[in-house]
Amino acid sequence: MLSACLVMACGKPSSETPGTNPTTETKTDGLKQLELLWKTSPLIQSTERTNCQEKLQAYADACSSTAFKNLLSSDQNKYTLTVKYDNILSCYDAAFERVLSALKEGKPSKGEVNIWLLYNMGYIIQTPSKTFGLDIYHYRAEELAPYLDFIGSTHAHQDHKSEPLMAAMYQAGKPVLSNYFEPEKNYVYTASVTKDYEFGACKIHTFITKHNNSTTNVPVTVFQIDCGEDAGGLVLMHSGDSNFIASEYDVTEKINVYIPRYAPNALAENQVIGQVFQPDYVLLSHILELSHKDIYDSRWSFELALDRASKIDCEKTYVPFWGEKLVWKNGKLN
């Protein structure tokens, strides 16, 4: 019965109804749980964190992929109303607002890097001298353009890109790295082969892998990014929806932080982790992607993600969630 009630709530008022005298501050239980989760750390799977994840999971399960896609195609007024009253979609919006507010506050100190998970596989990386995004996918993504120096998109699938953000970055003369974006002939930042770039202290090495072996196969660009000396020497790698074929991984440096997807073909992550390279940390991502229907359509749950993380060939494998920040400092994640 609870599950049925939650399904009805997704995309509709879940606690208060417009026109019924809402309180000055409306906050869904989902958002309350997210804020409690933010007080814990992805590096420690505490009882408090597990409790929050279980409640957030129930709210996410109640939100159909159709309801989420309707949100993405809605106008601003409908979006604002929907995220205000829905348990999981209020979290989706609040996570964005938290990251955006942090970017407005300025850069981290020398030797530090802020690593924000925005949503799905979308990460914002903020060093003392550069701020960039990888696989940013969000209704409000375009608002990030003034604060980003460059962005990268691993592949053309809709849950790994934001066309409005890409257009805004291009119009502002800021690099958009991918294997498919073609705003002009011979756009220098579009590459279907191995290519290197350098933006200030950031040195970027890219190479191409397969997404999968089915009809949805597209090329996936892996981003290996040396964030520079002022960033404490952090080398980060993001592989989007790569299919983890070892022979395709052209890793050229020691990887400190690796961001892979949860592999649909069980434990394929370990075909590269511990085999091709050994990262210090793994941030397992692509969890609770609301545009996917269910686990058979790769909407992975907290429970599955935590179980998979325990089997990855890297002892320090963690599962961050929307709006959470990790800080690289003195050679460690904090």
Task: Give an overview of the whole structure.
There is one protein chain. The protein is α/β, with parallel strands linked by helices and 334 residues long. It folds into 2 domains: 2-92, no CATH class; 108-333, Ribonuclease Z/Hydroxyacylglutathione hydrolase-like (Metallo-beta-lactamase, Chain A). The chain contains 8 helices and 14 strands. It has helices at 2-9, 29-38, 47-61, 65-72, 76-85, 89-104, 163-171, 302-309, and strands at residues 112-119, 122-126, 131-134, 150-152, 176-177, 195-199, 202-210, 219-226, 235-238, 257-259, 281-283, 317-318, 325-329, 332-333. A 7-stranded mixed β-sheet has the order 5-4-3-2-1-13-14. Strands 6-7-8-9-10-11-12 form a 7-stranded mixed β-sheet, with no helix packed on it. Strand 11, helix 8 and strand 12 (317-318) form a beta-alpha-beta unit. Helix 2 (29-38) packs antiparallel against helix 3 (47-61) and helix 5 packs across helix 6. Residues 1-9 and 11-24 have low confidence and may be disordered.
